[in-house]
Design a protein that fits this description.
Blueprint lengths: L2 H7 L4 H4 L44 H6 L5 H23 L2
């Protein structure tokens, strides 16, 4: 069975059903970070290639927020700029609705 046939046999993912996919969709990118601000089983980690969908959004753990608090001003500016760009993209996308 080739890769395409295996792909067609599985359940579709969010990325599969998007009309346009202009950006990367990382599954399991948490492993690239130093840690998670959500503790234990509530952390959104892929299981067998799928991301479980919780009934309620997971809440950050206060101690973990302190542990991973960003203190580097340059990194903070980079993340704020990134969030502003994402917000701008969301605003642009939803303005056409």
């Amino acid at each position: 069975m080739d890769r395409i046939e295996r792909h067609e046999m599985r359940e579709p993912t969010v990325a599969d059903v998007m009309p346009e996919l202009d950006f990367a969709c990382g599954l399991g990118t948490l492993s690239l970070l130093e840690g998670d601000v959500v503790a234990g089983a509530a952390s959104l980690r892929p299981v067998n290639g799928y991301l479980p969908v919780p009934r309620i959004p997971p809440a950050p753990d206060a101690a973990l927020l302190d542990t991973y608090e960003l203190s580097d001003a340059e990194q903070m500016a980079w993340w704020r700029d990134r969030l502003a760009r994402v917000r701008g993209e969301l605003d642009r996308t939803h303005a056409s609705d």
